[in-house]
């Protein structure tokens, strides 16, 4: 497709991107779906968000998405795109973060030395973990949990109720009794949940 | 009412005495009876909501029909006839337009257009499938001699079939709300309801016309099909035209805010009438008119007009629908029925059967084209939720008299409606819950699971919004470009690209937002995020709490009731009978707002860190000059003036709080560039500053434990000093916490900005 190729040329390092994220460019023979190039669509979306055409996104661009503003944890989601200290997101990072939400490839051959794919269960959990853990110390403290709860619950819930919910949450998950939830404890507490189903977006397959 | 008829000052002594008390009923009879009917309907509505549990289990249509039945019973025993107001003209010209306008105006446009194909598919093809299927099967039944209905021709069968295939899934929407049905299903049901009204009326007229013909030739049939498309498309184009004209007109109503709602109604009604004149689909016209004009009109008109429009549309629409259901009940008792067991029962059977089949087949065909295919539970909901409603009844009642079996048809329609509304309407909720519950076993979920699951759902919803929905993205993008470049310039009065917060604030009624903020100022500041961080650290060594299982169950219940649902399920279109509920959206926005405020203040210190962190409040665009005390440069409209006066009024109500004129002297943030464009509206500006003021107050309250009555009135200098005192008590936060939400707000003693 002529248009595909010309767009491809504009995206820097596209092969590396494809390999890292696993997003397909064209439909392969062994793929069952016939959806068109995801990377190109994401690129179009990136350009649409980047209204001033700077080639990177800043928080304000994300904020312009109305529906995201209405999301209780919208701020945190946006924050997840920006690594600490950086204020812009280039296309590479954009796609890499979104790649977390691809459904897991069930029939991927397990090569012992290849790095874990971005959309593995563990990485998805890490993404969710970092939404809680804003100070990035590797643990979810009680206050961080309270903040998330406050954001997700309506105003009728009183503080005592919030605090007891938070206490109970920590109690259930906290195995080494340090009153915080580490990543391992987080992962363990969510064993029963089908993370692939919950943290995947079907149209990114 | 005593009426003294005293025409001449000197009454002739020879005449009979003037009556002091007369009754002149015939003069007022018609308006009086109409008023009484509407009042009765309103009482019924009030009555339902007195006992909340009823409305949960029994859909409102059921209740209305029941009341109608009761009233009909009373009238029948008194040998009164029901008022003969339900004529064809009265229905089509007066009662139907409000119902359709109501559906069209409150249709959520974005999901609607994204699912446009599916909606049309189910509405048009589905209704056609149903009508033709039922018609043919009933005709086959007619051939069987035993039922004695051989005189019904094929055309008449088709006519009847088209009447009873008009689905009105109102009750289903309320049920879907409680059970987590995804947004797509919601909008399909909503759109289907809307469009199949249009399709049914078109088919009805078509078949009516055909039924009158003696002989039908193949050519006629094709002509009719062609006419069907002409009618549908014609209606759409017509409606769009009127929508744009309305939007254009509202561009100039800046000085005459009072007549703005009137213009909207007049234009919509005009669209309907003129479409009727040309015999194209008037329902489509009015719906498309409402859809197109809503977007532009809501930006042009004042906040009050916007509220008025919504309220009036809802009011008239629901009155109209209520009346029709009422009549249904009354007519059921009072008319002469023609009963034919075989025909009617088979009609009912086929109606259900063909709908189920139709949904099954149609879903199979369209699923591959959808991003999110419908699963079995969705299909069941769609099929079982096909209740018949007001439109079917009215269409049956207004059948022309030359149809031989008119009474039979009316009876049949009534039976189908009552069956679906009562039996299906009441049982759909438990059935869907059953199907749902079988999937997840709630008792084994821990609190952890619930919270994290909900967080993940919010995350995925957010990321989906971030990616933009892909199915119709291309066309939407094109249209939005066209819209921004051309349409908005023509149709909107002051075309400013608006930031998300400002646009949202305008849509959510500002005045109410103020009140919510007043109430919430105490709550928000009491939120554990920032203030109590300090105390938390002190109480680190708390003993472990023991939780009883009853506690845990309470927590589960608390969570399921209070956690915000995903995306806009709770906004806009949840209940057909009430106005859209914006409270959740407002809460979320207010919270973000205050956290933005906090991060702003926090961001004005800590040297270099501040410079970086202040960019982390995400929804305020660059160049928003928050520290400007000047009113925005564009002219304040007369309409916005009323918002200002509202703001003033509410501030007068709370004298110890700051008057709105006291503009917040926010510290000039070096990181924000002051761009010359005046993006702010007066409303947004005052809103934010008041919001800031409120949160200040709130934090003061929590800090000192009592209302500090020495809050400043009007003077910025006092304000800052007062706050200065309050804030500086907080200890410095020495941790390297970076994120603004975690940061403790400190106050750098700077001179207040004097402009």
Can you put this structure into words, describing what you see?
- The complex is a heterodimer of chains A (205) and B (755).
- Chain A has 205 residues and is mainly alpha-helical.
- Chain A has helices at residues 2-10, 14-21, 38-49, 59-63, 66-69, 74-81, 91-98, 121-132, 142-152, 159-173, 183-189, 195-198, and strands at 56-57, 89-90, 139-140, 181-182.
- In chain A, the strands form two sheets. In chain A, strands 1-2 form a two-stranded antiparallel ribbon.
- In chain A, helix 6 packs across helix 8 and helix 9 packs across helix 10.
- Chain A is globular and about 55 Å long.
- Chain A starts with a helix and ends in a 7-residue tail after the last helix.
- Mean pLDDT of chain A is 75; it is low at 26-36.
- With 755 residues, chain B is mainly alpha-helical.
- Chain B contains 28 helices and no strands.
- The radius of gyration of chain B is 31 Å and the shape is globular.
- Chain B starts with 24 loop residues before the first helix and ends in a 27-residue tail after the last helix.
- At the A-B interface, helix 3, helix 4, helix 5, helix 6 and helix 8 of A face helix 18, helix 20, helix 21, helix 23 and helix 24 of B.
- Chain A: This is Calcineurin-like EF-hand protein 2.
- Chain A: It comes from Cyprinus carpio carpio.
- Chain A: Keywords: Calcium, Cell membrane, Cytoplasm, Lipoprotein, Membrane, Metal-binding, Myristate, Nucleus, Phosphoprotein, Protein transport, Repeat, Transport.
- Chain A: Belongs to the calcineurin regulatory subunit family. CHP subfamily.
- Chain A: One of its GO terms (molecular function) is calcium ion binding.
